Amino acid sequence: xxxxxxxxxxxxxxxxxxxxxxxxxxAIPWLLNKNRNFQQNCLQAAKANQIRLSQATPLDLPExxxxxxxxxxxxxxxxxxxxxxxxxxxxxxNLGTLLFDVGFGPTRPALGxxxxxxGLSSDQIDALAISHLHPDxxxxxxxxxxxxxxxxxxxxxxxxxxxxLPDKAQAGGFKVTMVVEPRLLAAGMASSxxxxxxxxxxxxxxxxALIARxxxxxxxxxxxxxxxxxxxxxxxxKQLSNEPLYAVGGGLxxxxxxxxxxxxGIQIQTMLGTGKLPWQRITDDDxxxxxxxxxxxxxxxxxxxxxxxxxxxxxxMQRELQAETDVLKAGAIYRF
Length: 336
Ligand SMILES: [Zn+2]
Ligand SMILES: [Zn+2]
Description:
Structural class: alpha/beta
Helix content: 25-40%
Low-confidence stretches: 1-7
Largest sheet: 8 strands, mixed
Distance between the termini: 44 Å
Shape: globular
Radius of gyration: 19 Å
Bound molecules: zinc ion
Mean pLDDT: 92
Number of helices: 8
Order of helices and strands: HHEEEEEHEHHEEEEEEEEHEHEHEEE
């Protein structure tokens, strides 16, 4: 391994280490306190998910004639579209339309540009659902700080539409409904209901996944970041429907060799949102377990998000998953 490669392999560049030494009298008690909260939240999240799984009963999912996905924001992009480390997916079915997540919203150009290029306007959005309240899904860092889902002006509805949230927050211009259990949302698509995960820096995080039932195919499941883990999400899906799993898509959060949007020598995604302690890495073994789980679930198609998984993980999944596996691209249209 040459020197530059070795340095790239550090999640925190060695240039930061003297800084760490200086701030350690403040940082260490702060980290210990964070760790206490993290451990408590781990127990609470596991308990909450267990109760939700045990109480879930089958949902009356309408059988959809088709489901069309237009990818508005993703890490990879088709020519002429802007890639970004966020997620926004537009779903259309024979029963309506649903926008799932809004990437970094108006704070970065991807969503506005890509939506316009795909010819998507606000009247093609019957409802909005946000997977979870992180900046790359709810409209950027100001949106995250103020817990206010923020959508670019060009996609703001002219009349009041629903915004379905997995946790308490606001969404100006929308009628906010907090999703507290699995339920139908819009366009014949359902929510898994909130599922929890304890994250060291980002705290207790509730996330919902989308579920649709397609005629002659089965269930399609889409996640945002996949923080609760795809294992827990698929366990919930199984409680909600006996239909076979057809496709799984969205974020699975596997920054094994590095993260997206690294800043100043810090691989931020490998420490944020992993569900582990910041000094523990997400490993290839963790990824192997998830690959086995998806293979055992008999999924036919997988649509990976590159926004929270590294190229190494995307490559392994494309090689090792038995399902037909694609990496989602902004500007692409997929039909189920
Ligand atoms: Zn994300
Ligand atoms: Zn997230």
